[in-house]
Amino acid sequence: MANVVLENLAKIYAEGDTEEVRAVNGINLSVEKGEFLAIVGPSGSGKSTLLNLIGCLDVPTSGHVFIDGVDTQGLNEKELTRIRREKVGFVFQDFNLLPVLNAFENVILPLRYLKVAGHERERRAKEALDLVSLSNRSKSRPSQLSGGERQRVAIARALITNPSLVLADEPTGELDTVNTCRIIEVMRELNDKLNQTFAIVTHDPMVAGYTRRIVTLRDGSVESDLSQQPADLHCDDKPSI
Amino acid sequence: MLKVILRNMWRRKARTFLTVFGIVVGIFALTVLGGLSARLTQQVKGAKSWFTNSISIVPTGGSLFGGGENQFFTLSKVQEVQNVPGVKEAIAGIGLLVKSSQTFSLGAPDLIIGLDLSRSQDLLKQLHVDKGRGLTSGDRGKVLLGSTLANKLGAQVGGTVDLRGRQFEVVGILQPTLAAPDTFAFVSYKDALELFFKANPFITRGQPITSVIYATWDKGANPEVVSNRISRQVSGVRVISPKEAEKQISQFSLIFNAILFGIAFIALVVGGLSIINTMVMSVSERTKEIGLKRAIGADTRTILGEYLLESSVIGLLGGLIGMGVGLLAILLLNDATKSNNVTVFAISWLVVVGPVIFATVLGTLAGIFPALRASRLRPVESLRED
């Protein structure tokens, strides 16, 4: 069964108005479990909107989003929250860590919402921080971490619930080349190890080059959908900033 | 959870401090006034228990404390009251202020009460003598003092005190009741009458008068029925039944409690609005955080709960500090007035717990609107916020 299936998906703002914007305009797409794909396209092509629709953060104007075979059309807010909580992990461009929590507490947060028991929570948070090689910074607040470290914390947070789908919106948008490479490296490792689906919205051709499939959007529609052999990663060994 | 909330509050130290301080001021006022009210309630309760033991009959226009110094009636009225069926004893009495120029006092004033001792033993039995003895029939120049008044006058059993220029031998001192009888000096009717004539020289001497008649009732008789009967059968009198006495005394505390409610209301409005304001600001500042939490799986109830808890913590904090400072003020003020034998404040569990609960509930209620706002934010839109 496909992990994500989109059927005639559309998101239209100010529908019927002269200012009508068709942010996503009839997209059909199928993503298998364990894929590592990039969604690219010029700004305003509907990348982020599409990602939000797949992640059930936003509801489509028409069409369907199936997550692991479940049609999300017509689900209420509570049911959508449940899908986000159980099936999806989010990584954002500006990290979105809670400033009052340290790395460990940020990572553990989704498990709190999942009502996982305390000791189990802590074990999994340690594990997740280990996966992104940040065990030594678990007590640091976001303000004490570098950009690359913050994004690794955010990835650990997205992975801790063991979601079937990780959605990343410009995850390297605020990082330099070395850290961008490292983040992609971490994501690819995790993709290999845990077989979770990664969908990464990016406008960085280098990032797209490291993925196995590139979906290009233009004006809310799929312009091209190509599979490729991913480029090899050679991140510099310079210490991260 | 609580840790996160405290850290969020700490993140905006100045604002949190100001909001909490606003509540502290209101709760401080509430606590201090609560202490005052508790003390008044004590006195009212004690006054009730004394004044509702008998029916008071005063000249038309007189009050509970007797006819005052210018209103009185002749002793023949005592017999008229005595003749009313259901009346057990009609006791001639005279009420006089201990100081001719007593200023405002909280609760009952310092009062000399002259009673016909041969007939008032039933009434006097209600008083509990701490030291010495009670008054007996035929005592002259003797006084039975309430505990506060005894302290104020520096009286000792066996010693003498000066009441309106006359020396009285102290035969007994009453147990403290924290209420009206504490400030009373009981003497014989005849002694009180002499003081009364001395204070009011224009009244023809020798004509036996009384400013108040206390009537007790036969066992099994309804005092309200007896009171009605007295007012119907005896002319020119005002009859204050136990029920009415209670009503009159309650009015003292009623006014005071109205003030107390006023302060509570102001605290409610001011404190409530400042909490609402702070919380609305927190919600708009943290819109993005809320969006993030929703994205990673927090449902609307969780967000609602977080914000409600935060505002009730602000309320609780303000309540605890305000109550603590208020309590401290009460203790210091009580200590300062101790040397004057005045207790202005009382501390009851209600004075301590009431304001804290009030503040916490206030905080929670004030948080409802901002919390609802936070929980209803749409995840995508809040994430887009900067």
Short description:
The complex is a heterodimer of chains A (241) and B (386). With 241 residues, chain A is α/β, with parallel strands linked by helices.
General description of the model:
The complex is a heterodimer of chains A (241) and B (386). By secondary structure, chain A is α/β, with parallel strands linked by helices. Helices cover 33% and strands 25% of the residues of chain A. Chain A is built from 7 helices and 10 strands. Chain A has helices spanning 47-54, 77-87, 103-113, 118-131, 147-159, 177-194, 205-209, and strands at 4-13, 21-31, 36-40, 62-67, 70-71, 88-91, 165-169, 197-201, 213-218, 221-227. A 6-stranded mixed β-sheet of chain A has the order 6-7-8-3-9-10, with helices on both faces. In chain A, α3 packs across α4. The longest helix of chain A has 18 residues, at 177-194. Chain A is globular, with a radius of gyration of 18 Å. The mean pLDDT of chain A is 91. Chain B has 386 residues and is an alpha+beta fold. In chain B, α2 crosses α10, α2 (13-51) runs antiparallel to α11 and α8 crosses α10. Chain B is elongated. Chain B starts with a helix and ends with a helix. The interface between A and B is medium-sized, with 27 and 19 residues.
SSE layout:
The complex is a heterodimer of chains A (about 240) and B (about 375).
Chain A: E1 4-13, E2 21-31, E3 36-40, H1 47-54, E4 62-67, E5 70-71, H2 77-87, E6 88-91, H3 103-113, H4 118-131, H5 147-159, E7 165-169, H6 177-194, E8 197-201, H7 205-209, E9 213-218, E10 221-227
Parallel strand pairs in A: 3-8, 3-9, 6-7, 7-8
Antiparallel strand pairs in A: 1-2, 1-4, 4-5, 9-10
Helix pairs in contact in A: 3-4, 3-5, 4-5, 5-6
Chain B: H1 2-11, H2 13-51, E1 55-59, E2 73-74, H3 76-82, E3 87-97, E4 111-115, H4 121-124, E5 129-132, E6 142-145, H5 147-153, E7 160-163, E8 166-174, E9 184-188, H6 189-199, E10 209-210, E11 212-217, H7 223-233, E12 237-240, H8 242-285, H9 287-295, H10 300-336, H11 349-375, H12 379-384
Parallel strand pairs in B: 4-9, 6-8
Antiparallel strand pairs in B: 1-11, 1-12, 2-10, 3-4, 3-11, 5-8, 6-9, 7-8
Helix pairs in contact in B: 1-10, 2-8, 2-10, 2-11, 8-10, 8-11, 10-11
